[in-house]
Amino acid sequence: MENLVIALFCLILFGCIFMDVPLLLALFAGFLLFVAYGLYKKYSLGAVLKMALAGINNVKTIFLVFLLIGMLTGLWRASGTIAYIISLATQFIRPSIFLLLAFLLNCAISFLLGTSFGTAATMGVITMSIGNTLGVPAFYTGGAILSGVYFGDRMSPVSTSALLVSVLTETDLYTNIRNMALDTLPPFLAASLIYLGVGLSLPVDQTLLAQNNALESLYQFSPILVLPALSILVLSFFHVNVKKNMGVSIILAFILCVAVQGSAPGELLSIMLFGFHVQDPVLAPMVNGGGIVSMLRVGAIVCLSSSFAGIFQGTGLLDGVHAVLERLSQKTGYFVPTLLSAIFTALISCNQTLSIILTSQLCGSLTDNKNQFAISLEDTAVVISPLIPWSIACATVLDTTGSPRESILFACYLILVPLWALLKSFRHPASA
Predict the structure, then answer these.
(1) How confident is the model at residue 408 (pLDDT cuts 50, 70, 90)?
(2) Higher model confidence: residue 351 or residue 261?
(3) Would you kindly state where each structural domain of the chain is located, as residue ranges?
(4) Which residues contact 328 (CB under 8 A, 6 or more apart)?
(5) Non-local CB neighbours of 33 within 8 Å, separated by 6+ positions
(6) What are the residues whose beta carbons fall under 8 Å from the beta carbon of 238, sequence distance 6 or more?
(7) 417 and 192 in contact (C-beta within 8 Å)?
(8) Cα(326)–Cα(305) distance, rounded to whole angstroms?
(9) E-state strands within 327-376
(10) What is the pLDDT of residue 212?
């Protein structure tokens, strides 16, 4: 019966993908399916709903962070912080090293924003436009962008994915980032070398890039506009609580909006709620976005996904799968089952959040080392979902930047991270 329920859930997800039905509707249908399974197992409706609420309760702290991220990204757009960083970065791009810089710039912005979608809508759009101007095949540029926008999703202190992992594994966010810093260096350097090598070999147009006058016409640029982003880095270094860290950045961005850009406080309240928007069709893809409303969809996805986890745990729906993974871990260590689980959950869940939650639930008991397991989640579930074409983690970035689906094959960093982790698990099986 359990296998039938899982198969039916897969059919619902895949059917919604092919019929272009919103993912939230598919997840809600899945919620009803799993509630029905709970009733079939002789649990009362109240008991099943309590299971769902227990799952949501496990990640409740993340919802406040979602609100702060919405306000933060809206004010960063309104203050000119993002635009100023983009303007500075684009001045140093040269055609022969464009792919490497496209990767590095998207890495940097995603680390500052902590959001792949926000990075894709800003630096991703910019770098794709520059790549098209230089004659670089979109296949290559899209791969560099896809890799870069998910660098911060894994490493940034303001990343919702990194925060979700820390909540699920009951580990410290900054400790996880510190542990990942050295481990991520080999795949990061390898990806950088690949992008550099391919970029140097491409016959690209050597036309010099003009400065982005469009952005400069919208904002009053000043070096102090980097303060909201700089505060995130500095306070992260001193391990300041994530919520306080973002609160300081929000206050700084609010002050800059008023003092530098001349925005009215009432207007900024609207921006914090609904995001920053301009009508100019050229500028809109670069600067529009942010706001609490922009986080409602991801908040709803996390809410439904975490309710699934509560029902799965309460009803034992995935006990059979867990038993298979547990037997495998006795032979290979916990990383191989974690990797296989992440691939399986990424294929069926169509979103990164549920893949992280399900992988944590299936494999969390395979090791007593919570810190190592947190890194394993970062090395698998976080980076594998963006490699699944029908996952919103992948499709949203590719569609936003105008990248072809083939770009997935050139997302070197996302491919190398789990491969490097797998190699380490074979070299050190005792710790895996």
Answers:
(1) very high
(2) 261
(3) 2-59+298-431, 61-295
(4) 336, 337, 340
(5) 5, 8, 9, 12
(6) none
(7) no
(8) 23
(9) none
(10) 56
